[in-house]
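Changelog-linked ticket: flavin-adenine dinucleotide example.
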Amino acid sequence: MDFTISKEIELIAKTARGIAERYPPEYWRELDEKHEFAEDFWRDISEAGFVGAVIPEEYGGSGMGMQELLTIMDNLSSYGCGLAGVWYLMITEVFVALPIVRYGTQDQKERYLPKISSGEYEGCLALTEPNAGSNTFRISTYAVKEGDEYVINGSKIFITGVDRAKVMVLVTRTTPLEKAPKKTLGITLFLVDLPNKNIKYSLIPKHGINYSGTFEVSINDLKVPEDNVLGPIDYGWYTLLDILNPERMGFAIGAVGTAELAIKKAVEYSRERVVFKDPIGSYQSLQHPIAESYAALQAAKLLTYKAAWLYDVKHKPPEDVKNGDAVMKRVLSYKEVGDVANMAKVIAVENAIKAVYWSMQIFGGYGYAKETDVERWWREVNLLRVAPVTQQMALNYIAQHILGMPRGY
Ligand SMILES: Cc1cc2nc3c(=O)[nH]c(=O)nc-3n(C[C@H](O)[C@H](O)[C@H](O)COP(=O)(O)OP(=O)(O)OC[C@H]3O[C@@H](n4cnc5c(N)ncnc54)[C@H](O)[C@@H]3O)c2cc1C
């Protein structure tokens, strides 16, 4: 086992840290309060090649993998950006660019990837539905084939970034659940150009991360050309797994980075704040929970990088990405990526929440004031208990698919 950090990774980390230092916590505090998108930051991370990190060089990207992308996110997040260090990259790069890189046709790659790499195109993923929630198989947004196009109707909820996106990965059914040979079949992914008059959306006011909007979406008689099917028809669940695993990795590293940022700030404060005789940082009741969560966060980080390594080195889609059986077999044969990514997400998020909670506690009343930023990081890391996957669903996965316990739902 070799944990040496390569020169290339060191350089990526240094560049990300340089950008993060230009976008400190007060920048994000202001945008969160004003509900504004971080235009300057987006431009800078595009120019640094971060938005195109996983996009091959022939399409204007940096030709890197998940390990490098996590390094970028890790450093952006822990050096000042908090969860914003991963958020925009997740929405556009992981949700949209990555599946196009892995499952797109030549034409789809040429149409979308150069514009995503340059930062011109943002994207969004429309998966969650009001009546399906964590049970993706129950989605009812439906695509019917008519000639050489599909007509799509349905509704989606909590779709982040649809207001700015130029391309959406839309998850639909093309075979009803009751007619599918098995419940994982009958789902198909589409690339949809936005804006589109047949897609309407309205903002969901939310608890945190207000430098990015999240929306309810309705889709009425949307026509999408057959050429815009992404990956195999009816086997979209397996293509989706290829997005969901990196999604868990990205948010795991975002949780760790945000918590490390909060810890750094709280530790500095604890060394100076004196209310009795010694600095409050000398009290073991404050030291132990912070130390315990810090150690667990380092373990979560290692697990997250392991998931990325498995994904980069061992997990490649088959040659023929339109062949559903081949895609299914290939994705199932790399179950270990999902195993490690789910475990990483669970421990990263639980310990990030614990770390940020204790950071707030260290700040006493000031932790409740906006100016210290910890209350914002608290709102940010708490989201990760429910999205992108709830902690309970990730634990269900570990219990059933790793430990072999029976399924109770
Ligand atoms: C800010 C934000 C941004 C989001 N962005 C996007 C996006 O861009 N695109 C997108 O598609 N989605 C997005 N989502 C949706 C997110 O992925 C879902 O909210 C999440 O998957 C949970 O689904 P749900 O909210 O319907 O909860 P539900 O599935 O209704 O779950 C409710 C509760 O029941 C528990 N529960 C349900 N089933 C089980 C079970 N079998 N065992 C144990 N407990 C269970 C859950 O753990 C949870 O605690 C976003 C959500 C938020 C809040």
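Closing comment: Example verified and attached. The mean pLDDT is 97. The CA atoms of residues 197 and 222 lie 8 Å apart.
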